[in-house]
Design a protein that fits this description.
This is SnoaL-like domain-containing protein. The chain is of the alpha+beta class and 156 residues long. The protein has one domain: Nuclear Transport Factor 2, Chain: A (Roll), CATH 3.10.450.50. Helix content is 32%, strand content 36%. A six-stranded mixed β-sheet has the order 2-1-6-5-4-3. A hairpin with a 6-residue loop joins strand 4 and strand 5. The longest helix is centred in the first third of the chain and has 17 residues. 21% of the residues are buried.
Length: 156
C-alpha cells in the first residue's frame, strides 16, 4: 500500500462529501454536476440500516447517480440550507473504501434550529481511488423521522 493511494482515497472521500453541501454556505443550491463529477457513470447509492430501510419505502431502492440527485433535490427543496461536517474518516486502502462519519445539519424552511442527522457513508472507490463507484448511507432514524415531520409542514 502506498501513501499516495491513501491520500487519493482520503481526498476523494472528502471531496465527494463536501460537494454535497450547497454551492454557497447558507444557500439552497445543489451542484449536481459537481457531485457527479466525483463519481463513475455507473455510481449507485443505497441505504442502511436494513430494518429501518425495510420500514421506509423511499430508501428501499438503490439509486443511480441521476436518480440520487433527483432524490436530493426533492429533499433540499424543503430546506432553507444544510451543511455536512465530516467528524471522522477511515480509509481502507486494500479494499479501496472509505468510511465517513458526519453531522448533517438540515435547516427545514420555517424552523430556526437544525435537525442534526449523524450519518455514516461507506464509500467504494474505483481502481485508482479517484472516483466513487458506490455509497451506502446510514442515517439516524430518529433524526430522519423528525426531519420528515418538519418537512410535512413546509408550505402549509
Amino acid at each position: 500500500m502506498s501513501e499516495s493511494l491513501y491520500s487519493t482515497l482520503e481526498t476523494t472521500a472528502k471531496s465527494f462529501v463536501k460537494s454535497c453541501n450547497p454551492t454557497q454556505p447558507g444557500g439552497n443550491t445543489v451542484d449536481s454536476a459537481l457531485i457527479l463529477s466525483h463519481t463513475i457513470p455507473t455510481f449507485v447509492m443505497d441505504y442502511g440500516h436494513s430494518h429501518f430501510v425495510s420500514t421506509f419505502p423511499p430508501l428501499q431502492k438503490a439509486l443511480s447517480g441521476p436518480e440520487w440527485q433527483q432524490h436530493m433535490l426533492g429533499m433540499t427543496s424543503n430546506l432553507r440550507t444544510w451543511d455536512i461536517q465530516i467528524t471522522d474518516l477511515v480509509v481502507d486502502e486494500g479494499r479501496k473504501k472509505a468510511v465517513v462519519r458526519g453531522d448533517f445539519h438540515m435547516f427545514v424552511k420555517g424552523y430556526e434550529d437544525a435537525v442534526v442527522n449523524e450519518i455514516i457513508l461507506m464509500l467504494r472507490m474505483e481502481g485508482s481511488g479517484g472516483k466513487v463507484e458506490g455509497c451506502t448511507e446510514f442515517i439516524d432514524a430518529v433524526a430522519g423521522q423528525e426531519l420528515g415531520r418538519r418537512m410535512a409542514t413546509v408550505g402549509k
